[in-house]
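Title: Comparing notes on inverse folding

I've been comparing how different people in this forum approach sequence design from structure. To keep things fair, I'm posting one structure and asking everyone to reply with a full sequence. Here's the target:
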């Protein structure tokens, strides 16, 4: 079923999700939020998808919240009766869904990415930026606060001092500063951005075990909040016990010794080890 505000395509093991409101610089409304969650659900539930790329149509990645509603944009729609402690930020719903993914997610930031346009990417695993990208954590300049769980993600990615500078000033900066600050891993010419993202996604899709990647992704993210390395040691040990006895481990070693590409068969939808998810 097609989306209203997104394009969704799967090819060679890679799902590409394109924000598709170019006339609004891919600004976000409630439909975009709902459809992003649906797109990540679709990609996560499809064993044919090994990695996900997120990018934007036209000249922007995402201009953040659609401000067409004027000064009341952040106040919610008419007739809202929820109490403050009942409200849940839509951006956070999306990034929490990304956090739960079993597939790697790559942001291909092709142009301006401000507000939710950049906080959306913080739960993703790799951020690549075009030289045309302009980035801004502009919330304080709009009289609001960072959302989409970004006060958890951003300091873990770039450190507290850099996160503070960018969020306190709310200024817009270029791709080179994002690279220097550790927010993106590469800055590329516009015509090289998507090919580079696809090459990375396809390397994952063609060379690795899907079950291994699903476990590694959750191990990396969830250990960011661990109190002691012994928590990682416990999960590493469980992971090695179960994956080391799997058909994928046999295939990984055998293909290496036979000097041929591996043919992994494990599926995250059916073949995750019994200790997963260990955090519930």
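Reply #1:
Here's my take.
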């Amino acid at each position: 079923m097609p989306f209203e505000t997104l394009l969704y395509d799967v090819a060679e093991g890679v799902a590409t999700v394109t924000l598709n409101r170019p006339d609004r610089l891919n600004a976000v409304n409630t439909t975009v939020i709902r459809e992003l969650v649906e797109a990540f659900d679709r990609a996560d539930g499809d064993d044919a998808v090994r990695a996900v790329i997120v990018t934007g149509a036209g000249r922007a990645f995402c201009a953040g919240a659609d401000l067409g509603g004027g000064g009341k944009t952040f106040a919610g729609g008419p007739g809202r009766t929820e109490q403050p402690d009942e409200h849940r930020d839509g951006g956070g719903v999306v990034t929490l869904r990304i956090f739960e993914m079993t597939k790697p997610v790559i942001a291909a930031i092709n142009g301006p990415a401000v507000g939710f346009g950049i906080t959306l990417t913080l739960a993703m695993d790799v951020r690549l930026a075009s030289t045309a990208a302009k980035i801004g954590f502009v919330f304080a300049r709009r009289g609001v606060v960072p959302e989409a769980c970004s006060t958890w993600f951003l300091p873990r990615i770039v450190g507290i001092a850099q996160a503070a500078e960018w969020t306190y000033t709310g200024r817009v900066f270029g791709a080179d500063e994002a690279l220097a600050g550790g927010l993106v891993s590469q800055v590329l010419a516009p015509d090289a951005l998507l090919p580079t993202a696809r090459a990375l996604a396809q390397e994952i899709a063609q060379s690795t075990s899907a079950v291994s990647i699903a476990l590694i992704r959750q191990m990396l993210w969830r250990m960011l909040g661990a109190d002691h390395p012994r928590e990682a040691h416990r999960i590493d040990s469980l992971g090695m016990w179960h994956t080391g006895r799997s058909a994928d481990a046999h295939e990984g070693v055998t293909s290496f010794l036979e000097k041929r590409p591996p043919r992994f068969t494990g599926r995250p939808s059916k073949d995750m080890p019994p200790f997963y998810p260990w955090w519930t």
